[in-house]
Fold:
Amino acid sequence: MTMRMGSDHYGPILVTGGAGFIGSNFVLEWLRHIGTPVLNLDGLTYAGNLENLRSLEGDARHIFVHGDISDEKLVAALLQEYRPQAIVHFAAESHVDRSIVSPDAFIRTNVFGTFALLQAARSYFSALGEEQKKTFRFLHVSTDEVYGSLTPEDPAFTEDTPYAPNSPYAASKAASDHLVRAYFHTYGLPVLTTNCSNNYGPFQFPEKLIPLMILNGLEGKPLPVYGDGRNVRDWLFVEDHCSAIRAVLEGGRPGETYNIGGSSERTNLEVVATICDLLDELSPDQKIGSRRNLMTFVPDRPGHDRRYAINAEKIRRELGWSPVEKFETGIRKTVQWYLEHRDWVEHVRSGAYLQWIETNYAGRNA
Ligand code: NAD
Ligand code: DAU
Structure:
């Protein structure tokens, strides 16, 4: 692939939320594959972790700025100083359960934060020269949760599926998607939106299903399965998400949406059982025995979406992207990564993390 974005008469790309799970993978992958500088703006909430980017210490291509996307003046100043050729917007509050317990931060960052970023981008874009205007892009990273919930018989989500968000998180992302769309139609800002399914892989914060189950299973703790465990998610290895975003930046048509998915639908029970078996194989422990015995059904998430599935035909057809990793190989790599990075795990499981685990699971004791 020739990278239009790699051209050297531009400044760096601006990545927001580049210290989070997908953002940090994206920054690392960008520097590995494209190599042009990255300006990384991240507020370092509980989910942001500069340790994810430790391998870039001393690498002048990575410029980190600790700041909030809602701070329009800061963003405007960064755009003026660094003159980015593109903005890739990951920064968000991302955990559905937290959005149910306290939605406020989700509205602040996902809605007002995206709005502030759009305002700064619009003003920056309007002052660019004609040549730069042709190639500037604002890529908004969104989720399949905006489309709501599918029954087992429904066809997978396409880009034309009507929005029907069900959690405060999904509603805040839907609102941000609508703002992004409006800035294209009203102001001509060259935006791209990607709606992706569930990611997994290295550096995922252990509040989410897969890393939580790996770490609990490793330590012989209960594995809390919500409801009947038959909810379905369409799992995508994070590196495949990053390559899809690069493909959309490179060749996506402004104003368009691209769905990204792994074609790997699994029930939560299947995912947890696979993790149990991998742990038994890679880290056997006689005292714990078979990890499957740790699986514990707990009261369901309120408003729990039953099934997500992505139809990724458009990005395959238009941009030639399809996922490389199969779920079975990706989940093995992921379990191995957590086994080999115990220091990282210890550092992210701080006091604030333990407090969240107490808040989310204490009330669920079946
Ligand atoms: P994450 O929670 O791991 O990381 C979010 C990052 O954003 C953190 O580094 C955090 O510090 C930063 N951040 C939060 N609020 C900020 C603010 N106000 N200003 C600046 N930085 C702020 O999230 P993730 O799982 O990596 O998800 C990244 C993006 O991808 C999100 O927009 C999410 O909606 C979307 N997405 C995630 C998935 C998934 O499965 N994880 C799937 C589809 C889409
Ligand atoms: O679909 C994309 C979305 O995927 C992203 O937009 C979100 O940012 C991301 O967090 C993820 O949302 P989910 O709610 O699907 O992911 P989570 O890992 O929280 O849960 C996955 C499934 O596992 C879901 O059906 C709820 C269930 N679950 C989760 C946890 C944390 C459990 O059964 N037990 C648990 O302890």
Remarks:
- Residues 10-200+237-263+304-326 form a domain with the Rossmann fold fold (CATH 3.40.50.720).
